[in-house]
Amino acid sequence: MTRIYVGPTALYSLGQVGELSLLDAFDGDIVIPEPVIDEVQVEPTATNLAEYREGDVDTGVDEAHVDQAESLLGDADLGAAVTVLAGVLAHRDSDDRSAVAVVSEDRTVRRMGQGLGAEVTSSFGVVVRAAIEDKYLKPTQAKRIVRRIDQHGMHLTGELRERAVGEVA
């Protein structure tokens, strides 16, 4: 079963525009570790996250792997995002790259997650996936969401924005 670990940067991106429910487009269990939740204090993301958590969201932290994740990171201080990598370490499967996934905007988390065998995407990837998987999210709606995320601080270069919008179409 796929476990999708969501980091604080992706929560911020999707939460600022009220689109955390797009995470449900994934086939698997959404995991938002408790330390990641605690790190999200900016409004309206915090309120949107509290409402999203009323659904079936796992908040467990794989404590046995936190020290290993910190060791692998060396001097890089990722704050609560280290628990996302601990989840990857706990659930990765060399025979099944889809056993664990990471949703994050943080380059270090993304590179490390991918190197450890996780599928990796960003909030923009979440929107694209939702548009492809969800017959109720039209491409025009997805394009608006991408633009709103971009306007709320997770800036894309013009080329990347057009690529994300193009993939939605």
From TrEMBL:
InterPro entries: PIN-like_prokaryotic
Name of this chain's protein: Nucleic acid-binding protein
